[in-house]
Design a protein that fits this description.
By secondary structure, the protein is of the alpha/beta class. The chain has one domain: P-loop containing nucleotide triphosphate hydrolases (Rossmann fold, 3-Layer(aba) Sandwich). Helix content is 32%, strand content 27%. It contains five helices and seven strands, in the order E-H-E-E-H-E-H-E-H-E-H-E. It has a seven-stranded mixed β-sheet, sandwiched between helices. Helix 3 links the parallel strand 4 and strand 5. The radius of gyration is 16 Å and the shape is globular. 38% of the residues are buried. The structure holds guanosine-5'-diphosphate (GDP) and magnesium ion. Guanosine-5'-diphosphate (GDP) binds next to helix 1.
Length: 205
């Protein structure tokens, strides 16, 4: 990073039902490959340094299984800069769950006075023969619900993962710059990011 480059810290939530591939997508984007330690339960973080708009951005991806959503303290929604809702293209149930998820997130965001951008990621695009949800149906729903984008990606092959996450970072950065500084200071300690890419457990409770 050059000395003149501005440093920004952002928090992006990636949320989905167990098994849709949330952890895999974050791993693929942050580490560039998948590793075996994907069986973790609970809420996790992974961070990555990226350059965007001439800024050095430290992005914290919060890995949120849907049934842990209500465990996230309100403050995290207040500081979140963007959220991705993930479903599995081969699972109709996971798309139906997205509708319930959106309602819960709308409530949480309203309570936290947040208006951060939301995108949808349909994961598992490599499993073409198992597709259970029509692309146009998702696109229509996303438009109706006011999402900022819809991406079909594969954590397995990496297809479209960079595109989806890069867009989430870009949207998050726009939002981050539009909100008062005070919100960012509400998160207590900056996690100890010894390396540019760090993974650690979050003990929220
Ligand atoms: N074929 C395929 N399998 C995937 C993909 N993403 C994740 N998986 C597999 O789906 C399972 C659940 O993934 P995981 O990331 O643990 O899901 P999470 O519970 O949402 O965090 C694992 O066996 C992954 O290897 C994908 O894009 N394509
Ligand atoms: Mg997981």
């Amino acid at each position: 990073m050059s000395e003149t480059e501005e440093e920004v810290r952002m928090w992006l939530n990636v949320i989905g039902m167990y098994g849709v591939g949330v952890t895999s997508l974050i791993q693929r984007y942050v580490d560039g490959h998948l590793h075996n330690s994907r069986t973790g339960i609970g809420i996790d973080f992974k961070s990555k340094n990226v350059s965007a708009d001439d800024k050095n951005v430290q992005v914290y991806f919060i890995d949120v299984p849907f049934n842990h959503l209500t465990l996230i303290p309100r403050v995290y929604f207040r500081v979140s800069d963007a959220c991705a809702l993930v479903f599995r293209l081969s699972s109709r149930d996971s798309f139906d769950c997205l509708k319930e998820m959106k309602k819960k997130i709308d409530n949480l965001m309203a309570n936290a006075s947040s208006d951060c951008p939301l995108i949808v990621i349909g994961n598992g695009s490599d499993q073409r023969e198992h597709r259970a949800v029509n692309r146009f149906e998702v696109e229509d729903w996303c438009k109706k619900e006011g999402f900022c984008g819809y991406y079909e990606a594969s954590a397995e092959t990496g297809e479209n993962v960079d595109e989806a996450f890069t867009e989430m970072v870009r949207l998050g950065l726009d939002y981050h710059e539009s909100k008062p500084v005070e919100a960012d200071e509400a998160v207590a300690e900056k996690p100890s990011a010894k390396n540019e890419k760090t993974s650690f457990k979050c003990f929220l409770m």
